[in-house]
UniProtKB/TrEMBL annotation:
Stored CDD domains: HTH_XRE
Name of this chain's protein: Helix-turn-helix transcriptional regulator
InterPro entries (UniProt xref): Cro/C1-type_HTH (IPR001387), Lambda_DNA-bd_dom_sf (IPR010982), Rad_response_metalloprotease (IPR052345)
Domain of life: Bacteria
Entry GO MF terms: DNA binding
Organism classification: Bacteria, Pseudomonadati, Pseudomonadota, Alphaproteobacteria, Hyphomicrobiales
Pfam families: HTH_3
Domain HTH cro/C1-type, chain residue ranges per copy: 18-72
Gene3D superfamilies, per database record: lambda repressor-like DNA-binding domains
Length: 143
């Protein structure tokens, strides 16, 4: 039996951002699947990065979840240089590929939990203060 192929880290990142936004909106995998015309199992595969999301499908998902396509790539890093990065950069098709893909330090379920709770706060001033607090704590922990 052939070994299972590992998902591409960018596909995993895009999938985790999909799950984050979907759960922030309180939308089920089934409801998103219905709107996309796919099964909830397919949505699960997208969220795990097991199945790559095509460009047109990502555009459709961004409209359903009311976020720009760029949302799915926020905080993603390019994988380490695969030997083609110089060619791609010279052609204008790639960012700096010198840094490895960064894996979030917090477990995904904690990040989703935090995002769900945060999205329930109506007062914009309180949300801003929470962001400032978390950034301050993260910066202090890094040093």
């Amino acid at each position: 039996m052939a070994p299972r192929k590992q998902p591409n880290p960018i596909d995993v990142h895009v999938g985790s951002r999909l799950k984050l936004r979907r759960t922030m909106l309180g939308m089920t995998q089934e409801k998103l699947g219905d709107q996309l015309g796919v099964t909830f199992q397919q949505v699960q595969k997208y969220e795990k990065g097991a199945n790559r999301i095509g460009a047109s499908r990502l555009q459709e998902i961004s409209q359903i979840l009311d976020v720009p396509v760029a949302f799915f790539f926020e905080d993603a890093r390019q994988p380490a240089d695969d030997g083609l990065a110089g060619v791609a950069r010279a052609s204008g098709f790639a960012e700096d590929a010198g840094s490895a893909f960064a894996v979030p330090r917090a477990p995904a379920n904690e990040a989703h939990e935090l995002a769900r709770a945060f999205s329930r706060i109506d007062d914009a001033r309180i949300r801003r203060r929470i962001i400032d607090l978390v950034e301050t704590l993260a910066d202090a922990h890094r040093h």
